[in-house]
Amino acid sequence: IIAVWSKGIPLTEVIDVVEYLEPVDGRLEVLDPELPIDLIIDYAHTADGMDKLIDAVKPFAQQRLIFLCGMAGERDLTKTPEMGRVACRADYVIFTPDNPANDDPKMLTSELAKGATHNNDVEFTDRAEGIKHAIEIAQPGDTVVLASKGREPYQIMPGHVKVPHRDDLIGLDAAYAKFGGGPHAD
C-alpha cells in the first residue's frame, strides 16, 4: 500500500482496491478463521524471518503463542541456536526437522534447542507429530504458528527422497478432530 501511495496514487484509490488483493499462500496465512484457535502457516525459516513473523503475530495473540519451527538438513548449523532463541519469544515452542535430508532429525532439533531461553519447549523428530502436538495442547484463544515450510508439499528425507507432507493439511485435520468444523462438518 505504501509503495503504491509513494508513487503518487491517491490513498483513497489504493484503499478501494485492497479488498481485491489476494494473500500470498504460505505467508502469514490463517488457515480457517472459524476455528477457536488462530492456526497460521508461514515460510519463515531463518532467525530473522522468524523474528519478523513473531513480531507480526504476537500483538494479536489473545492467549498463548505456540510456535513450531524446523531446521533443514545439510545446512550451516552455526545459525541454528539463534533460531531457537528467537522462537522462544513465543510462550511454547516445538522444534522439529524441516527437510532433514541425510541429517539426523534428532541432531537438528537438538541444535535448535541449544538456543532455547525457557523450559517451555519440546522436540519432535517427526514434524507431523509435532504439528499434532501443537494442536493437542492448544486451547480456544491460542495462536498456533507452523513456521519453516509454508505450503511446501513435501519433506526431503534421506537419499533426498521427497515425501508428501503438508503442514496446512496436517494442522487442519488435527484442529478439526479436536474442535470440530471443517469442510465435512454438518
UniProtKB/TrEMBL annotation:
Q: What is this protein called?
A: UDP-N-acetylmuramoyl-L-alanyl-D-glutamate--L-lysine ligase
What keywords are assigned to this protein? Answer: Ligase
**Keyword Cell membrane carried by entry:** no
Q: Which domain of life is it from?
A: Bacteria
Specify the pathway: Cell wall biogenesis; peptidoglycan biosynthesis
MF terms per GO, please?
acid-amino acid ligase activity
Concerning InterPro entries, the annotation shows: Mur_ligase_C, Mur_ligase_C_dom_sf
Gene3D superfamilies on file: Mur ligase, C-terminal domain
Mur ligase C-terminal domain residues are: 26-150
| Classification via Pfam families | Mur_ligase_C (PF02875)
